[in-house]
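Hi D.,

Good news: the full-assembly prediction came through. Inputs first.
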Amino acid sequence: MTVSTVIKTDGLTKRFPRVTALDRLTVEVQPGVVGLVGANGAGKSTLIKILLGLSPATEGTGQVLGLDIATQGAEIRERVGYMPEHDCLPPDVSATEFVVHMARMSGLPASAARERTADTLRHVGLYEERYRPMGGYSTGMKQRVKLAQALVHDPQLVLLDEPTNGLDPVGRDEMLGLIRRVHTDFGISVLVTTHLLGELERTCDHLVVIDGGKLLRSSSTASFTEATQLLAVEVTDHPTDRDFDAEAVLRERLTAAGLTVRPDGSRILLVELAGDGTYDTVRDTVDDLGLGLIRLEQRRHRVAEIFSADPGVPAEHQPQQAQESHESHESHDEQAAAVPAGGEQA
Amino acid sequence: MTTPAQTHSGVIHDIGYRPYTGPRLGRGYATRSLYVQSLRAAFGLGRSGKSKVLPFLLLGGLTAPALAMLAIAVFANLKQMPLDYAQYLSNFSVLTQIFLAAQAPVLMSRDLRHHVVPLYFSRPAGRGDYVAAKFAAMFSALMIMLSLPLLVLFVGSLLAKFPFGDNLVHLLYGLVAAVLYALLYSALGLLIAAATPRRGFGVAAIMGTLMITGAIAAIVRGLTGGYDPVPRESAYWAELISPSGTVEGLVNQLFGIGGDGPDKLHAPGSLGALVFAAVIALVTAGSYALMLRRYRNV
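Then the structure:
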């Protein structure tokens, strides 16, 4: 049985006494790995609660796996797995005991619960340590147990709330790989929330961006990255003339050459890629000015740019986390800077 | 010989992900599973060895005097048990109260503290099922605590050849008292425990509530002449302040047990019995409703 639409909402609104958490959200999600992107407080967790049938919507309707969220909450929760953002593991029980209990709470008979627990913990990469109390687990192991309890009853859809939170870069890559496998190998659709767009680009088929409870954009990941490619350019100071403002002059020259240029941080210029000729133009202009080229690389759009591109959201309201991700990407760039051009941006 | 030569034994195959096609037993089964798990947890079963110590110590402590009475009744040729069944429960009620104070937070506070509650609510069993399972588990745990010594006493009375019918009736009185204690204690204890994610606070708050209400009830009863040589009947209304006093007063008045003198703890008259019963019902139902409310927004 294939479900054509995994999640469908129509004018979904959730008002709390003082804030509107969701504002007429209409979105349709197909099977696959779908990223739900938004800053903290954008309404992601509220949406998940409503989709699980735990919290009634103020207005609007929605369906999960073809089941109505207002009336068929119990049926939905039987077919859906949920991994919360926060820590949810009692420290004094082992992963096996905990996941077996959660499997039974999902309606699996005792023997099936034990079997599925063993299978699922193996699939998420937890081996001998699963018999130890979870209090001693690393963050990475805890995230795996949290994922396992969401998968143990073999749901048709899992809702993962910030699964990469608190993980180091290696752990984050492993978790993203695991999420990808949940769909490709296990055949389970995934809705994954994050405030870091960058990491979802590699994992998701489709991205839904919400901000302030409103839908900003919903489209395939490919169409996000197809959008105008940017070229990051960084040059050295002028070798002799200390007063020479290299960035400003370069910006003027490139604009004069018909390119769209804007600064990004203190030293980097972002140039819209208008074709292969753009590389030559940049190279020749820098050479002409007698400057050294430190960086010339492709860059994709990031969550911050999507937000700032929206006229309703001023750039100052960019989420803090997006900025942080930016900075962590910068440190990658530094290593990649030795490569003259086309360094693939993560 | 038809043994196939091509089979490999002892090879582990990675069969990949296997979808689950078996039965999904749904909400009722999940609620029952939570009930069983919680009842076991109340006695430390399925938890660390350390957490089994206190509940079993209390169960032993509550049953040991009954065993002693059994021995005395059998070997000392008594005419009846030194303590009536219901009276036994009220005399040793502090052990029941410690059990409640120690174990109610085990059922409620731990789930809150470690944020496990959202995992339950994202599964078929809902909020009402969660509260029902926890309440049933606490009630059952208290019933085990309270009825075990009563059964020991009953067996003792049979061994000592006390009148069978009379003992059976009084055992039933005792069991009624046990049910009332268990209902009222479970509702109050779980409600208090559900208010805090800190187990220590829960223990202190439950113990404090039961102790302090008991003390206040005694003081008020004393001030209104409840301990005079000829006690004033109206002073017994003070027992409504304390949960254990309410149950004890109702049971004593209903069944005419708890001693013969006018100083026995009892609900004042039939009106008193009615009010005491209503208070037990209201407090239990009210606490249960508040607990449901408590979990509405988790």
